[in-house]
Structure formats: C-alpha cells, structure tokens
Amino acid sequence: MKEEKKLVRVMGGESVSPPPIWLMRQAGRYLPEYRALRAKAGSFWTMCMNPEMACEITLQPIRRFGFDAAIIFSDILVVPAALGVKVEFEENIGPVLEPVSDIAGLETDRSKWGSTLAPVYEALRLTRAKLDSSTALIGFAGAPWTLATYMAEGRGSSDQRAAKLWFYRDPTSFAQLLDVLGDCVAQHLARQIEAGADVVQIFDSWASGLPASAFEACVIAPTKRVVQKLRAIHSHAKIIGFPRATTLAGYERYARETGVDAISLDTSVPMAWAAKNLNIPVQGNLDPIALLAGGDALARATDEILEAMCGKPFIFNLGHGVLQETPPEHVAELVARVRAS
Amino acid sequence: MKEEKKLVRVMGGESVSPPPIWLMRQAGRYLPEYRALRAKAGSFWTMCMNPEMACEITLQPIRRFGFDAAIIFSDILVVPAALGVKVEFEENIGPVLEPVSDIAGLETDRSKWGSTLAPVYEALRLTRAKLDSSTALIGFAGAPWTLATYMAEGRGSSDQRAAKLWFYRDPTSFAQLLDVLGDCVAQHLARQIEAGADVVQIFDSWASGLPASAFEACVIAPTKRVVQKLRAIHSHAKIIGFPRATTLAGYERYARETGVDAISLDTSVPMAWAAKNLNIPVQGNLDPIALLAGGDALARATDEILEAMCGKPFIFNLGHGVLQETPPEHVAELVARVRAS
Fold it and tell me: Which residues on chain A are in Cβ contact (under 8 Å) with B168?
C-alpha cells in the first residue's frame, strides 16, 4: 500500500529513508504552549482525562515539528485507576497511588473499566480526525510489571522494591496481579486501536535490574500474554515494546519471544549491536541529554544512530522521554537532521 | 601458595569451592552494632575519617558472619574531598558537594592529598592488624566517571545529567577532569595497598545509561588509565572493577580491555551468560531485594548463581549494596548456604 504511513511501513519490516521520527514525551513541559495550557487546566490528570485538552496537547508537537507520529497524551496509570486504585499526581513528587498488597480489591469486571478509560478513546477519536493522514497515531499502555511496581510501592520506585518483594515472597499471587493487569492492558490497547490508533506501544519502564528468572516471569511472559490477548481481538495490531534498560540478552529475548512487531531501545544499547542481533524493527535511542546539550554533540550522536541503522527497518526516537529543560530549537534541529539524512 | 587467602586465589584465576563470599555494604545500617556506633559518632563522615571507628565498623560484619573479605569502611567521595571539593553528608539526602564546573580550582598537587586521605590508610593498618590472616582486606575508590557525576551535579544523580552535559558540550575539559580524578584514584588505591589492602575495588556505580561512545570515553579509557597507573606503582595489584548496570557488551569490553583482574556484575546479568562470555574471574550478583525477602526466594536465587558459576573462578556477592532494612539473620542464612555448597 503506497499510501501507508511511514511508521506503519517500518513496523511491517520495510526500511524507509529517511526514517520516521517521533519522540517519547514529545508533548510536554518543554513546550511553552503546553505550559500555557497546563497553567489553565491546573493538573496533569485533568488534562489526561479531558479529551479536548488531551487532543490539543497531542497535536502541539505535530504542528511545531511535523513528527511522523503523534502519541496520545495520557498516562500509564489510567490502567490502575480503571482497576479501582486511587491515583493522584502531586506537584514535584509525581504519581501517588493507594498501595496494593493483594488483588482482592481490584475491579476485574471489564465492563466497568470504560468509565475511567473512555476519555482516552474520545481523545484518540478527536485527534485522528484532526491529524493529517500521513501522520500515524500511537496509543499506549504500561506493561503489567511496570504498573505493578507503582501499585505495590504506591509511587515510582527506582529499585522496584515492593513489587520485587511481593514477587519473591508470594510468586503465585503476584502472577495473579500481573494477569489482572495484563487483561486490562490488552483491553485498553484494543479499545485504543478501535478509537483510531495505528500503532500501540507497551512501556515497561522499570524492566531494569531484574535477575534473569524474574525477567522471564515478570516481563517476558506477561508481555507475551498481552500481545496474544490483543491479537485475539485485533489480529493485525501493530505493537512496539519498550522493556527499558533491560540487558542486551533481555532485549534479544523480548524481540524474539513476546510477539511485538518492533522494539524500542534505551540509550545505552549500541545500535550496531541492535542492527546485527535483533530480528525485528528497532526504535531509538538518542540520549535525551544529548538533545538537551544540542550543538555538535547532538549532530554527532544523531549521525551515529542513523549510520548504524541505515538500510534497516528503523524508527528514530530517544532512548527515554524528552527532558523538560530541552530547548524546542534543539528538537527542530534534530528533526531537520534526520529528514536530511 | 597454599596459605593464600581465598579471595586472592580466585582473583588469580583459581576456582575455589565453596567460593569466597563478602557483600557490598556489609558494614552498615542493617547492623544494630553499627547503628549504636553511629548514634555516638553523630555523622557518617566523622566515622569515615576516624581510623579507630572505621576499623571497628569494618570488623563488625566479619565478627558476625565470618566473611572471606573485609572492605574498609570509607566512602568514594574522599577522593573529591582530597581534591579540595567541599563534601557534606546530609541526613536523609546523602552527600552534597560544592558543584564543580571546571578543573581550575582542584588540588592537583598529590603531596597535599594525604592530609584528607591519611585516616583511610590508618584505618586499613589498624584493620589489617586485627584481621585473621585468612580474611582478605579490600580497599576501594570510586571510578573517575562516577566521581565526576557527583562533582558536576553536586550530589548523586540518577541520570548523570550534569556530567553528561559537560562531556557533550566540552569533551576536552571533561577529559581533563577525568584525568585529574584518575591520578588521585590510582594514588589512593596504591596507598591503600601499602596500608594493607590485599585487593582493591573500583566502583563505577553510575556506568549505566551511557551511549557506546560515551562509555568508551568516560568508563573504559579512564579505568584503563587508573589500572595502568596503579600497576606502574604496584605491578601485582589485584583489582576488581564494577561498572554497575552497564550493558552486557559493556561488561564484556570492560573485562577484556581495562586490565582489571575480576569484574563485579549487577543483578540483571544472567550468570550463565557471564560464565560463558567473560574471560576473567566474576563477582556477584544476588539481588539485594532477594536477601531482604529471605526464605525460599533467597535460597533459590543463591543456588541459581552457585550452579551457574560452579567450576569457575567466582566470588559470591550481591549485585548492589546490602539494604538497610535487611534482617541480619538473612545474611547469616546466605553465608551458611554458600559455605554448604
């Protein structure tokens, strides 16, 4: 299909030159137009749950930079919220959740999830209607493991301690938690596709630091189940997986076993290694701090990635989200450089 | 040499069964006897800089658990302090340093470094005199990159932003900073060996998240220089390197190129991979959270590591430091299990 969006073509295995580009957290606080809207809205969660606002924020970076994909403005914690967990966003602290230590209190009736999640689908529909037909729309969800780390700890946790303790001490009930999460994640991704998402991304932001057997039980197996459940509903769903900062062996295994169509890599992965060892399309992996630095360092880092992935099915992105201190001009320079490659 | 300490034998390439065991941060707040001393001393830094106290704290876990090695109680930030950087430890925040943005103000006259570092050497002498001859004594230092991350940021930084920005924007002056640090680190390790350390460990705690070219410039090359400088003084220095949470390719390269005798691995590295791919003795890599969990999970995780490393030159350790909430009984169980293997 000649008219297919670039991002979707790459996910089908095609090498496109120049490669499509979008950035994780491309909508956000580094943009003055976002900060202006945020000042009016009051809170991050209000913006996520207001379809018009979420649509507007999703479109802001597309207007400015003409990225090849728009990612819906939302948050991974909408899934715990749909399961009945109280989620609040505290200024300068981040998300605070009512900690969960067993699955008994979770809302497992999927017909109830929509009351929380419906605004995300409405935002996708509004955005799809306003987007150029050449721009892909991306929906997303957190992976079960990463969501479990927030739910067990009650907040973000750099060592994922509460979730790991739960897994070590009671692997059976922790597996049940991952299953409930996987059901809701698969359902949420399916509804996003129905609302207009061309592609969905699964963020496993806390996949690092897991011993090999825990990585299998907490990342590989639950992701595989999400992919299977989603494909049972939409057999052609296009899925990007991002097991952030796992080992190279972890990325390799994830690419081979989970069934995702493409894999997103963090900044430490040598792209020459990826080009040689990963058997699916790759996304990544510019250092967000190189984007913040700008200048020669940004140009060099960009070129290194483009050279390593030349001739491969590749999506240009960062290795992590845009930092809020990033000058928007650096983003414009990056897009221009990738487009000129 | 039949009488050689187990740790030293392993570092010479010998497989010892059961393997020697010690734990990173084995002296510390999880031990009531440490907390009692801390309550009297008032501050962490006071204890580091008081040779009698540092000696006593170093010996506490040896008395309790009979580890095969004692690591001197000190801190990696003694090196920036020796270079004239003001370092303070704030309760519940951690170290706070006067941020450094150029090397002009640093004390590069090595004859001046001793006034700050002498208490560390005295602590080593006192400890060596009290240690059983079969117990190895370990000295240590932070690697240049990790020290630079603290100095540039003025504190610990999970994304190493200030150091990366300096490196990206002015690689020449950043390389000079790494050189000054490397001089002081090599000197500090040499003096520790003279004071009785059998082995030294270089901690590169913030080696994760570096793109491949930055890893080469900031971790591999400076570590290689430290090793060369140290070996120019003590040709038989026994060195363990710990480029924490780098990629598998990073560990492989570090083991092959820096010249260290042994490599310490974080918890995410599959030990079966290490046994197959690393050409030097290996240390690691039990999850500190498995140690905190205890019970079956601890036993299983311990056995997995022991099995993977069976017949290899191997030092049992954690993948990161002991957590302060760890019950000392779990540590005793771990030591017993390793010794019974």
Answer: 289-290, 293, 295, 297-298, 301
Tell me, rounded to whole angstroms, the distance of Cα B274 from its chain centroid.
19
The shortest C-alpha distance from A10 to chain B (Å) reads 24
The C-alpha atoms of residue A147 and residue A255 are separated, in whole angstroms, by: 21
> Looking at the complex, does the CB of residue A284 fall below 8 Å from at least one CB of chain B?
no
Closest CA to A307 of A266, A337, A329, A262: A337
A211 reaches B (C-beta below 8 A): yes
Determine contact: B307 vs chain A, CB below 8 A.
no
Tell me if A168 and B290 make a contact (CB, 8 A cut-off): yes
Closest residue, chain A, to B211 (C-alpha): A268
Helix spans in B199-270 (H): 212-215, 221-233, 248-257
Instruction: Out of A210, A268, A293, name the one closest to residue B208 (CB).
Output: A268
Long-range contacts of the stretch B248-253 (C-beta < 8 A, 24+): B248/A247, B248/A248, B248/A249, B248/B273, B248/B277, B249/A248, B249/A270, B249/A273, B249/B212, B250/A268, B250/B207, B250/B210, B250/B215, B250/B219, B251/B278, B252/B277, B252/B278, B253/B215, B253/B220
Calculate mean pLDDT across residues A143-159.
95
**Burial class of residue A333 (count of CB atoms within 10 Å of its CB; 0-12, 13-18, 19+):** middle
Q: Which of B167, B220, B267 to mutate to test binding with chain A, by most A CBs within 10 Å of its CB? A: B267
Count of positions (residues) in chain A: 341
At residue B171, φ and ψ (nearest 5 deg) are: -60, -30
Q: Which of B29, B125, B155, B337 is catalytic?
A: B29
Smallest CA-to-CA distance from A303 within A313, A292, A290, A322 is with A290
Paired with A316 in beta bridges are A21, A284
Q: Are B287 and A213 in contact (CB under 8 A)?
A: no
Helix, strand or coil for residue A24? Answer: coil
B246 chain-A contacts, CB cut-off 8 A: 268
The pLDDT assigned to B92 comes to: 80
Give residues with Cβ within 8 angstroms of A194, minimum separation 6.
A121, A234
Interval B103-131: pLDDT, tens:
999 999 999 999 999 999 999 999 999 99
Q: Which residues of B touch A298 (CB under 8 A)?
A: 168
Whether pTM exceeds 0.90? yes
ipTM value = 0.95
Looking at CA atoms only, how far is residue B320 from chain A in angstroms? 10
Token pair 């300068």 is at which residue? A92
Write phi, then psi, for A189 (nearest 5 degrees).
-70, -40
